[in-house]
Amino acid sequence: MTTWLVQHLTAMRDALRRLFGAPLNTLLSLLVIGVALTLPTAGWLAIENLRAVAGDTPGVQQISIFLTLEAGQPEVAEIELRLQQAKSGSWRYVPRNEALMRLRESAGMTEIIGSLPKNPLPDAFVVTPADAQPESLELLAKTFASWPKVAHVQLDSAWVKRLDALLRLGKLIVVLLAVLFAGALVAITFNTIRLQILAQAAEIEVAKLIGATNSYIQRPLHYFGMLQGALGGLCAALLVGTGSYFLTPPVAELAQLYGGSFTLQGLSTTDIVALTAIGGGLGWLGAKISALIHLRRIS
Amino acid sequence: MITANAVTKRYPEGHEALKNVSFEITAGEMVFLTGHSGAGKSTLFKLLAAIERPTSGSIVINGQNLAALRRNAIPYLRRKLGLIFQDRKLLFDRTVLDNVLLPLSIVGHPVKDAPRRAQAALAKVGLPNRAKAFPITLSGGEQQRLAIARAVVNRPAVILADEPTANLDTASAIEILEIFRAFQQVGVTVVIATHDPLLMARLNPRILRLDQGRMSEPLCTPASDAVTP
């Protein structure tokens, strides 16, 4: 146990010494890894923020049924009965007077509504379907439209669905980017470790001859790859953090111009830890593969 | 301690470096492995150090059969042997002390105690004041002593040396052999491959003579060997 710990500490110290022994090399490697990780991270952050915008939007998955203006109490009762029989989910009746009253409450509308000769709004039903599948929503909307005295049926989720599809596409692109750049990170580490093994060929040969196990030789290399990857991850977090710091004010301003309040969410502590861990893991993988391949040549 | 039984080593290109070699070395013995260059000394050294495997036959060191040793058990066998290579294999990018610290690091010796232990090994070979020097600044004899210090720092029960006095003047060579004798006197088994007959006479060791890959019989006495090389 103690020996095991001593060997790991020694390997770690060895890796750190090599990392800081060539500061320029290390800095360049970290920058390359940082940039490689920045792109997918920034993409992911953008998607997360857009999803927050979409999630805030009310009226998701609702169907509004507007009756014709001449529809009266019997027609309303008829629709209520049909909705009860259809068992398509919960629903709410919005009488035309209530709708007008609510409209009057919204800012700037009082005068306009006061100038109207009569209530232009129809009676309406807002249905929240139990089954939110896009196909069944379409089917329900069609059924409602065929009922008597129904003037218009609106599927409120349409644009949300479009945004959702877009977000899913974006997410896929981010995942593909992430895979691509993860491969790049592994390749960068692979090459760094290859060069290290070449530079230390004499030492490795001697160590093997006097009883070093493969683990003893590989351990510092693994640590090196892991540390380099983890520091690269931190570097990426720093780059993304700087980016979102500069983007937050203009985004908030833009949101305000559209009458909303939206704050750009940067990376959380968990995100930074995850990014560092992913960088470290990928670096370790690159080092592991490289050590396996290149150490075999030194007997 | 070391038993070789009908050991044959044939290289892929067909050259037979060792032919049916058998011998036994008891614990605490000092043995010279001798013969002309190309007689198979270095090959036998490589087999004893598990750097190569015999084509047939068995080599048993400390109860372990090298021919049947699993690949990942080899490092642990080597740690029990003090190996001194013909080309010394010193690391010139680090100090004398760091060279001696390497075997301690390999076995996971406590970091705090390691320099003391390494320093003691350097003192034993007569290099107590060169710890901070770089190997390139050492003379040939000093470099060889450094190689011995590195081999013995883990206190092996067996020392295997391949041509340890090659390229050394007689005075340095004698110093080196005295160091080996000192280790033998405290119970270490010492096996030295050499073709230098002059030195053998001084130590009165047992001699195993190889001739074109065969162990020549009977084992000659050091005196007769020195007179008729």
From TrEMBL, chain B:
Pfam families (alphabetical): ABC_tran
Ranges of residues in domain ABC transporter: 2-227
Record's subcellular location: Cell inner membrane; Cell membrane
Membrane topology value: Peripheral membrane protein
InterPro entries noted in UniProt: AAA+_ATPase (IPR003593), ABC_transporter-like_ATP-bd (IPR003439), ABC_transporter-like_CS (IPR017871), ABC_transpr_LolD-like (IPR015854), Cell_div_FtsE (IPR005286), P-loop_NTPase (IPR027417)
Classification via SMART domains: AAA
Superkingdom: Bacteria
Main location per the UniProt record: membrane
Cited PROSITE patterns: ABC_TRANSPORTER_1, ABC_TRANSPORTER_2
Transmembrane spans: none
Gene Ontology MF: a single term: transmembrane transporter activity
GO cellular component, one term: plasma membrane
Keywords in alphabetical order: Amino-acid transport, ATP-binding, Cell cycle, Cell division, Cell membrane, Membrane, Nucleotide-binding, Translocase, Transport
GO annotation, biological process: amino acid transport; cell division
Family note: Belongs to the ABC transporter superfamily.
Subunit structure: Homodimer. Forms a membrane-associated complex with FtsX.
Record function comment: Part of the ABC transporter FtsEX involved in cellular division. Important for assembly or stability of the septal ring.
PANTHER family: CELL DIVISION ATP-BINDING PROTEIN FTSE, IMPORT ATP-BINDING PROTEIN
Protein name: Cell division ATP-binding protein FtsE
Biological source species: Candidatus Accumulibacter meliphilus
